[in-house]
Specification:
Distance between the termini: 99 Å
Strand content: 15-25%
CATH architecture of the largest domain: Alpha-Beta Complex
Number of domains: 4
Structural class: alpha+beta
Number of helices: 12
CATH class of the largest domain: Alpha Beta
């Protein structure tokens, strides 16, 4: 028995030693793995620090600058000021099409533009795929009358290419003294060749709120209701008096018994943020979110909510949008779309995907008299959907052909169809319909009929 007990104890000791060896091996292996992984992570962090080291990057920049000054063939282009300005322009423009470094002269010109009167074409432009692109022409302006449409690519201005041009440089070329002429070479989707149009600059002053016949609020006979007590209003842009004029138009239509509304934002390139916020407020009860602007700093965080001062939240609204609807238009469409999903208003978005311009640019002056125009924040809808480079997706997609867009532009232009000399062509254009507006009216009629049936059913149940 003692021997057997001793044998058993010996086995127990051997097993214990074996377990300890295994445990020590696992621990040792873990330590080695941790050391290796730690070393790899340390090297990766060190590499990242080297890559993002400002002093190392500045040394590379300085080396390149000195090599250019010593070896570049044209010595007249290698002053430090020119090279630094070029480097700053390239650095900032690489961020996005809306950011820009403005040397002192350019910044001074910008301030002069905002303080004085200038001539323009009435077209809103942006940079897409390194080319100057028309967001939308404003109705009643030289650009609109010349037949320019949303999506047109401006490939040349007065014979000079616009490839890789900055937005501010392009706007500077398009503006000028009223009465002077500028030649634009355009490329349009669906056409194989470019074409050139000559446009005379003018002081841009347009009414921003119009009825279906193109009349503004100052005409007594404007803003008559369509069939089934449907109102219609078109916002051309968001100017200083847009919200006030829209309030007057809505009241005029409400007094006639308006029960639903077509809010046409097609081709509206945007404008003043406060006007977009106030217009959203018309269709929301009190204390509902409208939008937020968010950047990297706490100071760039802003939120806007409805005040409920003018309440049309019970009015059914069909909002028309297309590729030319941008910025403030997208704020309104996105707000009403999200608010309907939350059950606080009754709107449906109809048409095509919007442009996707939802960012905030700040002007940041520098000590040398220059300035940065820098994108510092983005717009977000109440459900926190980003607008920039995505746009607003309509609830009901209704595409429109280029031919339809062109004919509708002619109908809205000076003289309408009477401006077409050829009778056969005029008759053919007369048959072209506005499919997006027709769909909006059908939707509103259908919703009205449905609501009436539900109300009748509720009344019958109540009587029983």
């Amino acid at each position: 028995m003692p021997w057997r007990r001793a044998q058993g104890n010996l086995r127990t000791v051997e097993e214990s030693l074996m377990k300890n060896r295994i445990a020590y091996g696992v621990v040792a292996t873990g330590l080695v793995v941790n050391l290796v992984l730690g070393s790899m992570v340390f090297n990766m962090v060190a590499d990242d620090k080297v890559k993002d080291d400002p002093y190392e990057s500045m040394r590379t920049l300085t080396q390149v600058m000195e090599m250019i000054r010593e070896d570049y063939v044209d010595s007249g282009k290698v002053s430090y000021e020119e090279l630094v300005n070029a480097a700053l322009k390239g650095m900032v423009s690489a961020l996005d099409p809306h950011s820009e470094y403005m040397p002192p002269k350019r910044f001074e010109d910008l301030r002069s533009d905002t303080e004085g009167e200038f001539g323009g074409l009435g077209i809103v432009v942006s940079v897409r795929d390194n080319w100057l692109t028309v967001v939308s022409p404003m109705e009643g302006t030289p650009g609109f009358d010349a037949g320019i449409i949303s999506g047109d690519r401006i490939v040349e201005i007065d014979g000079e290419s616009t490839e890789n041009v900055t937005l501010t440089e392009a706007v500077g070329k398009l503006r000028g003294r009223p009465g002077t002429e500028v030649k634009l070479t355009l490329f349009r989707r669906g056409k194989s060749d470019t074409f050139t149009v000559s446009v005379e600059r003018a002081v841009i002053k347009v009414a921003t709120v119009k009825d279906i016949n193109g009349h503004s609020i100052d005409r007594d006979e404007s803003f008559k209701l369509l069939d089934e007590q449907i109102g219609y209003v078109r916002l051309l842009q968001f100017g200083e008096h847009t919200a006030a004029d829209l309030r007057s138009a809505l009241k005029r239509m409400k007094d006639q018994g308006m029960t639903s509304l077509v809010l046409d934002l097609r081709g509206n390139p945007g404008g003043l943020l406060d006007q977009a916020v106030e217009i959203c407020d018309f269709f929301l009860p009190r204390n509902n979110p409208i939008l937020t602007t968010e950047g990297r700093k706490q100071s760039q965080l802003s939120s806007y909510s409805s005040r409920g001062m003018v309440d049309y939240s019970k009015v059914r609204v069909a909002v028309l949008v297309n590729r030319g609807s941008a910025s403030a238009s997208e704020i309104v469409a996105g707000c009403l779309q999200d608010s309907t999903a939350q059950g606080v208003c009754d709107a449906v978005i109809i048409g095509e995907q919007t442009f996707g311009k939802g960012s905030v640019q700040s002007i940041l002056p520098l000590e040398n008299g220059a300035a940065l125009r820098l994108t510092t924040a983005k717009y977000y809808t109440p459900s926190h959907k980003v607008i920039h480079e995505r746009g607003i997706t309509p609830d009901i997609n209704v595409p429109m052909s280029l031919e339809q867009q062109r004919v509708l532009a002619i109908k809205r232009g000076p003289g309408g169809l009477n401006s077409i000399d050829d009778e056969a062509e005029r008759n053919r254009y007369a048959e072209v319909t506005d499919s997006q507006l027709d769909r909006a009216i059908d939707v509103l009629k259908g919703l009205s009929l449905l609501m009436n049936e539900e109300e009748k059913g509720e009344q019958e149940v109540a009587r029983k």
